Amino acid sequence: MEIDYIRDFTMYTAIFGIMSFAWFGWAQEAPKKSWRAYIGIASGIALIVGLAGVYLSVADWDAALYILAVLMTAAALISPWIARKIEVAYSAVTGISSGILLFMFAVLGLVRFLLAS
Fold first, then answer.
1. H helices of 28-89, where?
2. Which chain regions cross the lipid bilayer (predicted)?
């Protein structure tokens, strides 16, 4: 399968770069002492590549992704207030609200793909 749109390249650069940064970060928990510098360097490079992909992806977003960004920001801002009100951890409210929003937009993307095919 050939990729038809440049945004697809930038999105997987962003996703895989940031995810590799996260995994390299996890690897820093308790590696051999001689590995630490290499894992740190790999983590830094992954972050730079991921952020470059994020920048390039944002430059090529369509309207639906701007809406998602606004909703995710709103969810993050109101989560502490909701969490205090219902007496749960902030992360529970932020995780659930973000998970729902991301899932809805994942389904939207799948539907748009299927309709375009």
1. 36-58, 63-86
2. 9-26, 38-56, 63-83, 89-115
Residues 84 and 51 in one domain: no
Residue type, 9: F
Would you say 71 and 108 are in contact if contact means Cβ atoms under 8 Å apart? no
Enter the tokens of residue 75.
């969810």
d(CA 109, CA 114): 9
Considering the domain architecture, whether residues 69 and 108 belong to the same structural domain is answered as yes
3-state secondary structure of 1: coil
Task: Judge whether residue 60 has pLDDT over 80.
Answer: no
**Residue 2 pLDDT exceeds 80:** no
The 10s digit of each residue's pLDDT in 19-50 is 999 899 888 888 899 999 999 999 999 999 99
- CB 52, CB 17: distance < 8 Å: yes
Range of the domain at 108: 62-117
Residues 52 and 91 in one domain: no
66 and 52 in a common domain: no
- Alpha-carbon distance of 68 to 32, in angstroms, equals 41
pTM exceeds 0.85, yes or no: no
